[in-house]
């Protein structure tokens, strides 16, 4: 192949919480690099997933959902998303078509923070209208697709299902053609720029989100205190931070059952990811008001 034809660049995946950005990133890569839960706003970090093909390397930045919530942590999450956008060659907006077709009145408010920035964008913009698997009658989507093309005439719109990996090849081909001609920035076998230690914290956090009820998971954070690879075994100590005393009891659960279930699920997944036996110890610590503590949020890697 002609070396000069190789393309490489950055794609920022933007959009409201719960649109399916993380699911789509994992589907593009055919492997899990971002956590997925049914709860909105689980992505706290900018996760880079790297897709390497003989003729191109696409580096995806999965961003925390763009929304209008308050609080220091949310402010930092928003900054992360805007930062990703500023460094991208292609902007990709992911939207939950099911939500906006059922509740069109939500659309304007949800995309308000993005709307003008996208309209004024001079770089290529791709809109992935996700979750189309939820429609048997695809004609129901037409008014929403029309609304989008009027709102952002500069964008290319693609109906897709991240869950069924439907329509993703078309988007990838479209993106690839719009990246700068450049050699690959990362080795072809590297899937993410995030170290395994970080992935481990994300896996524990995903299991907390899946096991805990209501708002509680939003007030938990995970720090990997120890990550020791002994060759055939990995020893991991993780601290789960909670914001209140009562939360600690809930995370541990009756007779320690909740924490045990989180630990078992996380250990299994880490074993699959690393191909090694994993010994995982979880500790729960109270750190009151951590979501408003900038120094602590930085320590967790939530701010650059
Ligand atoms: N039916 C259907 N569900 C999907 C699809 N893509 C994602 N989901 C579901 O939507 C929910 C949110 O998916 P995520 O991938 O975590 O969404 P996100 O945009 O990364 O969410 P944030 O962390 O809030 O930014 C999960 O329950 C997914 O299983 C899809 O194509 N079809």
Model description:
This is GTPase Era. GTP binds at residues 15-22, 62-66, 130-133. InterPro entries: G_ERA_dom, GTP-bd, GTPase_Era-like, KH_dom-like_a/b, KH_dom_type_2, KH_sf_prok-type, P-loop_NTPase, Small_GTP-bd. Residues 204-288 form the KH type-2 domain. With 304 residues, the chain is an alpha/beta fold. It folds into two domains: 3-177, 3-Layer(aba) Sandwich (Rossmann fold), CATH 3.40.50; 196-299, GMP Synthetase, Chain A, domain 3 (2-Layer Sandwich), CATH 3.30.300.20. It has helices spanning 21-29, 72-86, 97-102, 104-119, 142-151, 168-177, 196-211, 245-252, 257-274, 294-299; strands spanning 7-14, 47-53, 56-62, 90-96, 125-130, 155-159, 220-229, 233-242, 277-286. It has a six-stranded mixed sheet with strand order 2-3-1-4-5-6, with helices on both faces. The protein has a three-stranded mixed sheet with strand order 7-8-9. A hairpin with a 2-residue loop joins strand 2 (47-53) and strand 3. The mean pLDDT is 87. The structure holds guanosine-5'-triphosphate. Guanosine-5'-triphosphate (GTP) binds at residues 17-23, 36-38, 40-43, 64-65, 130-131, 133-134, 161-163.
């Amino acid at each position: 192949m002609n070396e000069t034809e190789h393309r490489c660049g950055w794609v920022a995946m933007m959009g409201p919480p719960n649109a399916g950005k993380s699911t789509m990133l994992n589907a593009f890569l055919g492997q899990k690099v971002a956590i997925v839960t049914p709860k909105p706003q689980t992505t706290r970090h900018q996760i880079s997933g790297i897709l390497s093909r003989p003729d191109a390397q696409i580096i995806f930045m999965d961003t925390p959902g763009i929304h209008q919530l308050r609080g220091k942590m949310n402010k930092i999450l928003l900054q992360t998303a805007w930062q990703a956008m500023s460094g991208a060659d292609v902007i990709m907006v992911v939207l939950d078509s099911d939500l906006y077709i059922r509740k069109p009145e939500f659309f304007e408010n949800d995309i308000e923070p993005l709307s003008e920035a996208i309209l004024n964008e001079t770089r290529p913009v791709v809109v992935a209208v996700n979750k189309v698997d939820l429609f048997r009658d695809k004609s129901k989507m037409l008014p929403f697709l029309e609304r989008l093309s009027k709102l952002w005439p500069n964008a290319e719109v693609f109906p897709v299902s991240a869950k069924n990996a439907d329509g993703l090849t078309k988007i990838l081909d479209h993106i690839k053609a719009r990246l700068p001609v450049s050699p690959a920035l990362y080795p072809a076998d590297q899937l993410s720029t995030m170290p395994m230690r970080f992935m481990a914290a994300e896996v524990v956090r995903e299991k907390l989100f899946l096991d805990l009820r209501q708002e509680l998971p939003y007030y938990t954070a995970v720090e990997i205190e120890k990550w020791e690879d002994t060759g055939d075994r990995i020893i991991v100590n993780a601290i789960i931070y909670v914001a209140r005393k009562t939360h600690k009891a809930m995370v541990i659960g009756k007779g320690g059952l909740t924490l045990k279930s989180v630990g078992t699920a996380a250990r299994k997944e880490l074993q699959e990811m690393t191909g090694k036996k994993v010994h995982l110890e979880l500790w729960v610590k109270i750190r009151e008001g951590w979501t408003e503590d900038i120094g602590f949020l930085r320590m967790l890697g939530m701010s650059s």
